[in-house]
Amino acid sequence: MNINGFQNWRVSVDAAGIAWVTLDRVGESTNALSSWVMNELAQLLDQFDSKPPKGLIFRSGKAAGFIAGADIQEFTQLDTAEKGIELVARGWHLFNRLAAVSYPTLALVRGHCLGGGLELALACRYLLVVDEPSTRMGLPEVMLGIVPGWGGMLRLPERIGPQAALDMMLTGKTIDAVKAKRLGLADDCVPARVMDSAAAWLVLANQPRRHPPLLQRLLDGPLKGLVASAAKKQVGRRARREHYPAPYAIIDIWANHQGNALAAPALIGGIVRSPTARNLVRVFFLQERLKNFGKASSDTVRRVHVVGAGVMGGDIAAWCALRGLTVTLQDQGMERIAPALQRAYAAWSQRIRDQRELRNVMDRLIPDPEGHGARQADVVIEAIFEDLDAKRALLARLEAVIKADAVLATNTSSLRIEDLSTVLARPQRLIGIHFFNPVAKMPLVEVVAAAGADPEMLQRGTAFVKQIDRLPLPVKSAPGFLVNAVLGPYMLEAMRAVDEGFSAATVDEAMLAFGMPMGPIELIDMVGLDVAMAAGKSLAGATAEPPKCLLERFNAGFLGRKTGRGFYDYPAGRPAKGPAGPVPTGLSARLVKPLLDRTQQLVNDRIVADADLADAGVIFGTGFAPFTGGPMNYVKGLQA
Fold first, then answer.
1. What burial class does residue 260 get, using C-beta atoms within 10 Å of its C-beta: 0-12 exposed, 13-18 middle, 19+ buried?
2. Fewer CB atoms < 10 Å away: N or C end of the chain?
């Protein structure tokens, strides 16, 4: 068999007649299905047509994983409906061809298997996954504002049933190897040490594939309408069709066109050319830019010391422990540390099924009332309440005992680093590492540089943020930095509207209609009215008068969700909003204007390096409507 001449694929045929086809994309650290890669795959299948192997096994030549998906760069060139349909047709026809070959095929999945990579795997007769934490499978196209058009909408529901399949496709979430086996997505789940032999046995065994239960087959057939109706209602609670058309298109193509996107060309053309898809692809590249920060440092953190076991400090410590670091958590006594440990156990026990792994995570989270861990820590984070004098005193005590090369950081949300560092012998070593609440869900972390900050400390702090799987955003020291500085005037304007007589529910509905994931009043309740009061004084000045609606509730002890009452009551942990009523024309534009103006000012003042990073920070730090591409991109669109 002539199997030479391919640059992205390596082919070897073993003694049993199995063709081992390894994807190793030229010049890249991860595999993606570019047009070049796909064209070579088509040529490979041509050669196998003339001399079929006994079996064909796809695997990856990259340590990073199987296939990350299609080449996202090519999405930026889809400026016409015809180009979008051509891209869909390329993968749909090629993978249908793969699914129809006469010889058995198998995808050996180790590491990430996403988007087009999973669609390729689904086109194989068998799918074998390697039981490792890095093995993750999903169809995240909806996160880019597009649909899984290369067969995913057809084959994933056939394989695991429509409810589980739609859940994956409409949220973009991934599943691990064990769940893939349990759902029936994978035929087997094996350790890495036996993956090759298991793959060879399975591809030659000619075993029939497991079919979903009868009910799931009915739901993927005559009862499709019921599933589609329920799915639309569920999506409607999270995303409006005018903002995010892709999830609605996925439901429509699955329910009405047998998962074939080419049968709905107008729908695909509209999605490909939509501002939402263009902006969500932009957000993807912004995220990739943030991920690149911290790569320059080879520093590896092993021990972290956190002072302050409140919600923020405790959750920072718990997250670091989850990511494999040894963490000591200090506060004034065990009675203050214990709630943080309990919170961590409650959160991680729902996330980690293996009891040994859960125990290992909790063993890495060490209560330390006396603060002994500060002496051995590579990174020391101050996370006590927002009081300048208290923070200064603590930082001075820490500097006296920590290692000379340890990163000393504050999690302050509103104080200037320069004001905190005046008591230090080496003020230039203090940096900000500012997390957002809830720590486990908010991906952004601001890395804050004061004037004259030590570049090495900043680089190591940024590398630490990347190490714990967060998105580092470099910002300069200023009240509120970037994220809180733009949220402050936005939330203030919302409360002024309440003072003028608008109901809290109406104000929130105005911004939900704009595309925010949460209204500003509910956000204030989540942050805490006490925090809003303190931040307001810090950002606006001690003499600034707080909104009447905030002051009244604060004085009454109604501090938001944590006390069960704030602007809303929380009888079951969720806000009891009541009807919003009609939203006046122009209210959302009024409410968002202070956020847009403040973002522009911070870009002008170089608090953040450029408008793109400002967009990334506000999207990943506040949830600002991603379909807009960020506040600066949104303003640019208004001016166009």
1. middle
2. C
Catalytic residue among 141, 158, 399, 446: 141
Strand partners, 109: 129
Work out the number of other CB atoms within 10 angstroms of the CB of residue 622: 23
| Residue predicted with more confidence, 149 or 543 | 149
**Per-residue model confidence (pLDDT) at position 4:** 64
523 SS3 class:
helix
Residue 141 falls in the annotated catalytic set: yes
Helix (H, G, I), strand (E, B), or coil: what is residue 410? strand
pLDDT above 80 for 538: no
Q: Output the CA–CA distances (angstroms, integers) from residue 84 to 163, 218, 261, 384, in the order listed.
A: 27, 32, 11, 52
55: Cβ–Cβ under 8 A, 6 or more apart, which residues?
Answer: 16, 17, 18, 19, 103, 104, 105, 106, 200, 203, 204
Q: Count the Cβ atoms, other than its own, within 10 Å of residue 131.
A: 18
3-class SS at 619? helix
Is 18's pLDDT higher than 90?
A: yes
Find the angle CA(577)-CA(226)-CA(174) to the nearest 5 degrees.
75
Residue type (1 letter), 607? I
Taking the alpha carbons of 449, 454, 460, 463 in that order, is the dihedral positive or negative? positive
Q: What are the phi and psi torsion angles at 474 (to 5°)?
A: -70, 130
Q: What pLDDT shows up at residue 2?
A: 42
Band of residue 540 on the pLDDT scale cut at 50, 70, 90: low
Of 185, 186, 208, the C-alpha closest to 195 is 186
- Confidence at residue 573, expressed as pLDDT on a 0 to 100 scale: 84
Point out the catalytic residue in the list 74, 119, 509, 545: 119
pLDDT of residue 5: 79
Residue 575, both tokens: 């806000």
- Rounded CA gap, 473 and 387, in Å? 24
Residues with Cβ within 8 Å of residue 27, at least 6 apart in sequence: none
Structure tokens given for 256: 């009405």
C-beta separation of 392 from 417 below 8 A: no
Q: Is 119 a catalytic residue?
A: yes
Evaluate if residue 340 carries a pLDDT over 80.
Answer: yes
Tokens of 319: 């997250």
The string of DSSP letters for 172-236 reads ---EEHHHHHHHTSSSEEE-GGGHHHHHHHHHHH-PPPPPPPHHHHHHTTTTHHHHHHHHHHHHH
pLDDT tens string 91-124: 999 999 999 999 999 999 999 999 999 999 999 9
DSSP secondary structure string for all residues of 3-52: ----SSEEEEE-TTSEEEEEE--TT-SS--B-HHHHHHHHHHHHHHHHS-
Strands 444-449 and 430-434: antiparallel
The count of residues in the chain is 640
Tokens of 251: 């439901």
In this prediction, residue 541 carries a pLDDT of 56
- Strand (E) positions, 32-124? 55-60, 65-67, 105-109, 112-114
pTM as predicted: 0.91
pLDDT tens readout for residues 275-286? 999 999 999 999
Averaged over 410-419, what is the pLDDT? 93
